[in-house]
Design a protein that fits this description.
The structure is a single chain. This protein is an alpha+beta fold. It contains six helices and eight strands, in the order ααββββααββββαα. The strands form two sheets. Strands 1, 2, 3 and 4 form a four-stranded antiparallel β-sheet that branches. Helix 3 packs parallel to helix 4 and helix 5 (222-241) packs parallel to helix 6.
Length: 272
């Protein structure tokens, strides 16, 4: 066959075309999805952090009630109990204070002022009450020991502290840790008596009254002595009974009656 024969040119052109197509196919990148995914994260898939992984839960796990050391003074023992919530002192009360004779009047006058100062300051750096130097000194020492306990439990300091069980973000309320149920502090209504107003504040945790205190009670003259004697007994009875069904203190009928009514109103709030 001659080189210039038309059929020869057609055959050569066809062969060249086929070779070109084969060459193009071998150079074309793979479009296989499996091959693409092997390079990294498949397109369209976003990285999502697990819910609840945003760090330690803020201090919403409930209040802490902490009792300071008993401090002995020349006129009697002083002991302070505080409630800490969200890194702040929300309540302070003297569960022991000097009583008897003049000491009862001094304590009745000084302790409410010291309680208020402790809550306002959030520390034991508070001024002594005039005329109650020893009681004030004992109060401050016991308060500091209670605050030290709060600090060791990560209750103090600026927010963001873990709850008592150390649980993190994904936890829900009503944790199953025995005594880790959230505490509630509830204040009863003010009850007017013939000798002055009475008002009770309680702390309830796990359905039980864990603390009771009179934030108001009759004072002045003989009333201060009666309140100083009766109120600690009523507080103890309220915690022991877990209800307002407590006996009146002898010699303090009006104070006892007002206490029971205010206590019941606080318990009603707990039930609600």
């Amino acid at each position: 066959m001659k080189k210039s024969h038309p059929l020869r040119r057609i055959v050569l052109a066809g062969a060249a075309t086929v070779s070109g197509i084969v060459l193009l196919l071998t150079l074309k990148p793979s479009s296989d999805p499996a091959a693409a995914s092997a390079e990294g994260t498949p397109q369209g898939q976003q990285s999502v952090a697990p819910q609840g992984s945003g760090g330690v839960q803020a201090a919403g796990g409930g209040d802490q009630t902490l009792t300071g050391d008993v401090v002995k003074t020349e006129y009697g023992n002083v002991q302070v109990r505080i409630t800490v919530s969200g890194g702040k002192i929300t309540s302070a009360a003297a569960v022991q204070a000097p009583t008897g004779g003049r000491s009862t009047e001094v304590s009745t006058n000084a302790v409410p002022k010291l309680n208020q100062a402790a809550t306002a300051a959030g520390s034991a750096d508070i001024d002594a009450v005039s005329g109650a130097t020893y009681t004030s000194g004992g109060y401050k020492k016991s308060l500091q020991s209670a605050l030290d306990k709060a600090g060791s439990s990560s209750a103090t300091g600026g927010g963001g502290s873990a709850d008592a069980s150390g649980s993190t973000g994904g936890s829900t309320g009503g944790s199953t840790g025995g005594g880790s149920a959230q505490a509630k502090t509830l204040t009863g209504t003010v009850v007017e008596t013939d000798y002055g107003p009475v008002q009770v504040r309680i702390t309830v945790a796990g359905g039980k009254v864990t603390k009771a205190e009179a934030v108001q009670s009759p004072s002045g003259g003989r009333s201060s002595q009666i309140s100083g004697d009766a109120v600690p007994k009523l507080n103890q009875a309220a915690v022991a009974a877990g209800s307002a069904d407590i006996d009146a203190v002898s010699g303090a009928t009006y104070t006892s009656g007002g206490y029971k009514k205010s206590l019941q109103s606080a318990l009603d709030q707990a039930g609600g």
